[in-house]
Amino acid sequence: MRVQFYILSFFLVFVLFTAMPPTPALHEDGYHRCVEGCGSQHESQKGLLIHQKTCKIANQSDSQLVDLQKRIQENRAQKKLKKRKRLENDVGPVAHPGGHDGNAAPVSLALDDFETDMQVDEPFISPEEPPPEPEPEQLGRGRRKKRGTWKVIQNLPQPTPPVSDEPVSIPTPSSPTPDPALQDDPEDSVVWKIFRSAANIFGIYREYHSPEMPTHHPDDHLTLHDLTLDPDPLITPPTSSPFALASLRDTDDAANSEDTSNATSHLASAHDDRGTSTSTVFESGAPTTTPMVSEPPPPSTPAPFANWSVYWLMKWMWSGSDKKSLAECNALVSEVIQKEGFDPSHFANFDAGRETAKLDAFLNTNAKDGWKTSDVTIEVPDGKRHQSPSDPPVPTFSVPGLHHRSIVEIIKTAWTDASADKFHFLPFKQYWRRSADKVERIHDEIYSSDAFIRAHEDLQHSKPEEGCTLERVVCALMFWSDSTHLASFGDASLWPLYMFFGNQSKYVRGRPNSGACHHVAYIPKLPDKIRDFFSALTGKSLSDDAQTLCRRDLMHSVWRLLLDADFRHAYVHGIIIKCTDGITRRVYPRLFTYSADYPEKVLLATIRSMGDCLCPRCKILKPLVPELGMIRDFKRRLTAARVDNNIFRSVVTTARNAIYKAGAAIKARVVGEILDPQSLIPVKNAFSEFAEAVSEGVAPHAWNFFTMFVPDLMHEFELGEFKRFFTYLIRLLEAIGAGAVQEMNRRYRLMPTFGRFTIRKKSVDTSALKKLAAHDYEDYVRTAMPVFEKLFPNPLHDKLVQDMLFTLADWHALAKLRMHTDSSLALLRATTASLGKQYRFFVKNVCGFYDTKELAREEAARNRRRAAAIKAGKPTPPATAGKLKKTLNVFTYKHHALGDYPDTIVMFGTTDSYSTQQGELEHRRVKRFYARTNKNNAVKQITNLHRREEAMRSRKERIYKTLKKKRQSAAAVLEMQSEPLSYTPPEYHHEISRSQNFPSTLPRWANLNRVDPAMKDFYRKLQDHLYSRLLNPGCADVEQTFTNAERQNFLLLGSRIYRHKVFRVNYTTYDVRRGQDSMNPSSHPDIMVPARDLDPDTGESPSGHPYAYARILGVFHAAVSHRVDGQLPTTRIVEFLLVRWFRLDTTWKGGFEARRLYRIEFLPESDPNAFGFLDPDDVIRGSHLIPAFAYGLQEDASLYYSDVYKYYYVNFFVDRDMYMRYRGLGVGHSFIRVPQDQSAVPPPCDDDDDDDIPDVVPDGADDDDDDEEEGGESGGDHERDEDEADPEVDPEDGEGDENAAASHGYAAH
């Protein structure tokens, strides 16, 4: 019998083994794929095995598979033949941007124009074969199809596949507004081609418009780590990303001793792939500079230091904390390093000052992009005539202390640095195949924007340099400037000018320690001694108007010096640079964006701050600003756009001659008649002069500098428009009285936090508005609705306030997206129109019902300003007793700027590319530098500190590349150390510690806590949950109830479960990155999972809401064993969560159409489904649930959980990824479908609400500029009230015509 048993067992094993589908292989991209012909891919082998159980193709016989593969090959050959014939016969352009021919199979995610893996649901049947017999129809309800867990469903981020080496067609240029002159020019020898990549798993593909195939592919080597928002600190260097290195180039001793002639001869012998010899950087007759050479090999010795030990010490000295000094460094050597165990021989006669001087001398000798100090000369209006030859010349004044670097040399250094390997040289358009019949354009990076594409096309159409066949590429320059206070006390300040490269990914530029920010200049301020100069010159005191004019003139004189002859020549003729990929290119710098706050914008645009034409981009009149969102408002922004032309220059020149040559007063009537129609000022614009100087060399399009002043979301909305509305709501609550303000403060103190820095704790009274930064107002706009609910006794006013807060949060979320599509941009336009209409309705129907006065802090600030004006001898209005009337002002630039965001995103990419947050974060760096100076000539010392840090950073990156393998092995050692949850790799769905520090023995532990309703039938429910998961691995909603006999086959080893504190979840974001949430039963316990009734085929929920919500009560793991007759028991570790479920309040209408947050409530404690267990694999991410403060706590003393509210609101505004999950427009989100009304675009706002438009600025309207921006008229010396904090940020979160926007000067050059 035993022999027969063994024979039977062997036979069964053999049958099962032969019936199993082929063992899946792990492909190079990290995915497990099914057999050829199916095309299904999964991130885990478990998910693939589940799929293959029902896959018809994988379960066919071998002969059928062979036949299927042959048919697939034949199908591919037929498609190739059809494509070749289509190209040869030149059968028209493609049907749509995605390149479909109309016959593509809707189930395929790959483009049909290329040879890709074909996805089929059933085998291809040739006409000769008889069709198979239909399967018998199943009677009854049938077996319910199981849904896989979220871990199985969700896709991991992956880069776009490589571009095809064959063009798909030869159409006309694919720019948003093709220039007919360029398309029809018979002499134009440029033949444009389209090179297209295949679509990745998300349906994303790229389209390059270029005469030649792209020669550089910076994204080909991206890994999942590069696409992770929280990278592993053991892999990424602490001070920089792997591909965002410092800007200072290394040279070894041999390169140091090599003279210029050797370098030139070396460059002259260098040839690129085209065989073109490169002799010098500039052509003959141009200003000469040192030719560019390729990056030298890593040095063998750390020049200029004697050995590596000294280098490491100096690197420590000039990086990290700002509390270190030369004396402390010497003490470190004498008291620590020279102790027993160290090698003191490397530090014989060590002196930090001498080594620092050696480093500075080395940098001064070898760095061409080093700091220089210059004087800036400005003209002074003395009120005298200077017209005739007999008149004296216009007096000038020299302003000392401009510390600056050459922009050309910075470009050379950065483009030969290792970080330039990730620069994008060729622009492209990126598309998202949203469905089989719908393709949308993706807008994210600046190098995929219309401005970059237009600049590239203009460059290719321009006449090349004679005899040069080098590839010509665009270098996108992005500037940022603002004055900052260097210390909390005193008047020490710095006015830095920063520069970024748009060729670099914004995800790198956004990291403060990436080295992507290049310091160009530290702008000096007008010294006080100009008053003495003016008094000695004229015998009069310098007026405020004259001083303001000199300050404005100083800024543009600085820019004239920066846009020097070298830069002008490089702009027209390019810079020959041998890039990091070994190919020599001709690089043409182009100015794209200038990020600044409003006072800085008007200073650079040379317009009057808050004049009648208050916008630096268009000439809209102030009385028309409240028409925000109307159709005529969108059109007016295009027809009234500011243009840099001869008319603009002549107007300024005429007014300036009247002041400087004719001796007219600055505010004379004749000057005002010339300048006031466009709100101009009598200052020659440096950018206009530069554009005129290079206009002949950059034909056919001249550069319009007004287009580079992009909107600023941080200053214009978070610290501007929303701050103004939020302050007005506090005034309304004060007018209501009855403790409304105190209730608002209490609710904000009770606001739950979210994420690491997303929503922060509000411990002080919000109404005081003291020391608030930009991220504080960002928190307020995301969480304001539940706080202000029912604080207004008038139901209509309460509804209007809720509508306004919802629309403001909706607009903010859309404007701050890192990735836009055509659908989301249409939503932004529609939301802008809705916001403008609601503003007008709110002003008309709410503001007039309340007598709002200024807040206490506003009154105190007004009195301080008046006292300061009296002390300075300036005229002041008479003092007023009590608080002044304050109303809501919509006649402001910041209100008007909200309408510019949709078109700006199309032209320059999403707002995070040019946000002023990057510059504010860089301010922290210069403040650290200032703390390390002796405060004597601090700016000069800051330049030295900046240069030293850049040198050490660059050297560190070189060393890091050589030690990379060693660091990876160190990471493996760290995984075995005692830290149970140090890092969660991005490829994991989640992670729970495997420590056994907190064991609990069942059922005794459950009995000890039996008063807790969550412990009712704890052991039995746990057994059923775990047993169900063992029987249905990788499936969700598999809860079953088993008999006691069946439970005997399931064994909980040791009857123990192990509790844990933290549960981390990785998720794929809407912009195809990898994010992470960390949940804790004590803090951040709320999670979201797919709806329990979600259809596994369509991803839709019959109930209309795609998600379910739960609160984590405990995080556990256990060792379980499953016994099967005739087999040895198997043991595995199983993780599970104890949760309490919420349910959707069906009596409440939530969503975007209703302009309300979804409202949920806990299932009653007596409900048998109130508590349960959850597979962690099914968690999507954490959820931010805000208590419905207006409804209070549950009032039942018998409840065990008595500290819960009656209702909670689902805050889908908490971050950008959460917002897109409810909009249903996330490119990286998969499977789940939201109701159509949540992603539908509302109709455009018509112009039928003219009666709601205010006629004039109301009395008592609050000013457009906050206290921090009062210095706009003084030329950039921004003052800030003492209660205001720096605009600190987190190191992180209609009817517009796009074609018309491009035709009115939105192209960057």
Automatic annotation (TrEMBL):
Biased composition (Acidic residues): 1245-1272, 1280-1298
Keyword Flavoprotein recorded: no
Ranges where the record places region Disordered: 79-106, 122-185, 251-300, 1235-1309
Keywords from the UniProt entry: Signal
Official protein name in the record: C2H2-type domain-containing protein
Composition-biased stretches (Polar residues): 257-267
Organism: Steccherinum ochraceum
Stretch forming the signal peptide: 1-25
InterPro entries found in the cross-reference section: Plavaka
Tagged with keyword Isomerase: no
